Amino acid sequence: MRAVLMAGGSGTRLRPLTCDLPKPMVPILARPIAEHIINLLKRHQITEIIATLHYLPDVMRDYFQDGSSLGVQIIYAVEEDQPLGTAGCVKNVAELLDETFIVISGDSVTDFDLSAALEFHRQHCSQATLVLTQVPNPLEFGVVITDDRQRIQRFLEKPSPGEVFSDTVNTGIYILEPEVLEYLPSDQELDFSKDLFPLLLEKHIPMYGYVAAGYWCDIGHLDVYREAQYDGLMRRVTLDYAYKEQSPGLWVGQNTYIDLTARIEPPVLIGDNCRIGPRVQIESGTVIGDNVTIGADADLKRPIIWNGAIIGEEVHLRACVIGRGARVDRRVHVLEGAVVGSLSTVGEEAQISPGVRVWPSKKIESGATLNINLIWGNTARRNLFGQRGVSGLANVDITPEFAVKLGAAYGSTLKQGSQVTVSRDQRSISRMVSRSLIAGLMSVGVNVLNLEATAIPVARSVLPTLSVSGGLHVRVHPDRSDHILIEFFNHQGINLSKAQEKKIEGAYFKEDLRRAQIHEIGNVVILSQAIDIYSTSFEKHLQVEALRRSSSKVVIDYVYAVSGAVLPQLLGKFGCDAVVLNASLSHTAPTTADREGLLNQLGHVVEALHATFGVQVSANGEQLILVDEAGIPIRGEILTALMVDTVLTSQPRGTVVVPVHVSSAIEQIARRHDGKVIRTKVNPTALMEACYTQSNVVLGGSGEMGFIFPQMHPGFDAMFCIAKLIEMLSLQERSLGQIRAELPRINHKTYSVRCPWTVKGALMRHLVETHAPENLELVDGVKICNRQHDSWVLILPDAGEPLVQIMANSSDRGWVDETLREYRQLVQEFVDQSQQVDELRP
């Protein structure tokens, strides 16, 4: 039997360890990851190995050669021109695979029983068997659902938090019959999870999931890399140690000298030809490779030290990685999570702060304190993008230097000479950040159309009219006045997809940023006609005569935001009687309490003036809260239902798009008007994309996010919403109070339960497994429906916090209260049990 060892990975998230080394050759316990995989294959009598290579292929070929030193036979297949992907590289060697074979990744550490997996494959007459395992946090892996016979029903590659429906994930180990490769074209970049397995599911070809017991760890980033070493030393995974166990938990290689005064606390691994000086203290969890010298009085607490490193006297190493041949001089401190790249030198008494990465062959001067990665930028973050763009504390997380690098990363994903728009709110912090982003974009040869301070609907609406690749908008976060939010748009004005966000993250984390030559530096042009472009579109999509004839009096509170500079002049063109409050610009963002106070004031003004309605505009022109003629606020679920009813009254048989968690009142309203409802994930991008791609959509959004009128532009727009509302109320001759009184009476309640990140996936899987499939909807989170009574309960993992939201919806208040109680208890008990199991684990 043959195995295909996929060893072409470049390991970008492990840089700088992989700058001069392919990921499968990164050492675990002083031996390459690929060597541990080969040893595992050999333990299960698999000795014919085809290694597929792409990145730095000679490193692996020179190390293993024909494999005879390890008792196996290795053939190499090099992808010369471009990477072919997980499936493409296997298709490339299809002529060598004439019977059942195993595909295994060269960048994970595992001790799975491959013989048992092969037996399972044969017993089930499977054409493709995926080896699966259960993990605490499935967000970075492919999630898989199987039936009671382990036949695969569904899978999703790298889900977002709301899409998690199981904690059983694909490990990248597959047992395949050669026939399945016939479904793949040759010489193309192909992926098993994206290209082959969905096709096999569609054609009903037997494909099973074998849930393996044992240890599995995908070495995805630097923290996991260190944890895998510690797990190996603690015997949590069965590995072949390269050295003799001199005493319990202490492995020492040949020709290694350890001074008698050195103190070693096992488990510790020390390689061949090492020299450990006097009074050295080595704590448990330390891994020292071959040919390493440790000077006197050094203090090592769980570092990973690669071959050939020189560690000076009185050096302090704390849970860090010291690369091949690096030199760390006297009294240096290298702190938790830091990495010193191969062949780098750290001068005497220097300090490398936690998490800082030093690229290979760099020199740090004596006495220096290094707080940033050595070439560019700050300490790398695991993820840039959240549920909505990039956000963080103003001038703490989102600093000018961060914004410059982010702009350069975004620009590096675009063609040189591309053009993008940059806009912002009127706050000083937003001006600073937007200028830094512009500098980053220019540095990689991208031209900028600067819209300066403008409402976000204006910024979105002009994009399709310009020859631009996308846009950026900077504003104070609508929900947190001390945070900045940076949003990225595509050329249509829609927020970027997850795939596009990943490209920007990749450029940012790899620090693989394009540098333009002087004559290629981008230009900046100020675009002054943005409001004119928006105004033209605004007028085109309204029944202007209805507005002019309207006797409506509207009170608008702009909360000191930039939308106050746009909407009054637009409404003034149509002769609308609008009373304006708080329209002056302020450089200080109001707090939530400030906005509530202004909303209360707005209600009094509406009532006193006998106005038709009032509205408070927020989120830089995207969101609104209505106030009816009696001065009562309309927001949240009631606002969503009211807008749907008003729009469908004007445009019956239309389609509305709402998030999955919005109340079922929307379906009831749609039935009244012969309309259709489409539900999406609870994120702005999903709403925008659905509004743009689905036919006959007349309204999208919710009271929480804002409302989309796709004929105008694909983003949320409170300003157009106000004008449209004046038009519709005038034509329908109804008031907000009347519309609200006619809305369906639906009970809709939400409760939050704390749930650790590591438990969310298991909880979702438990819910899926314990409810009948015909009652489930998995658009976002897990929705359990009672279709007879139009009732449902939704358990939705929070994207940004260790919480799950439980939402119950029914016309029966008692059912809502009882269901909320039941699922609160269920979730709490599951979380408690999971944490107890974790505490009992060694």
UniProtKB/TrEMBL annotation:
Residues 383-513, 534-631, 636-744 form the Alpha-D-phosphohexomutase alpha/beta/alpha domain. Belongs to the phosphohexose mutase family. It is found in: Cytoplasm, Cytosol. This is Mannose-1-phosphate guanylyltransferase. InterPro entries: A-D-PHexomutase_a/b/a-I, A-D-PHexomutase_a/b/a-I/II/III, A-D-PHexomutase_a/b/a-II, A-D-PHexomutase_a/b/a-III, A-D-PHexomutase_C_sf, Hexapep_transf_CS, LbH_EIF2B3/5, Mannose-1P_guanyltransferase. Residues 253-352 form the EIF2B subunit epsilon/gamma LbH domain. Its main location: cytoplasm. GO terms for biological process: carbohydrate metabolic process. The keyword Glycoprotein does not apply. The keyword Ion transport does not apply. Residues 3-230 form the Nucleotidyl transferase domain. It holds the Pfam family PGM_PMM_III. Keywords: Cytoplasm, Initiation factor, Nucleotidyltransferase, Phosphoprotein, Protein biosynthesis, Repeat, Transferase. One of its GO terms (cellular component) is carboxysome. One of its GO terms (molecular function) is structural constituent of carboxysome shell.
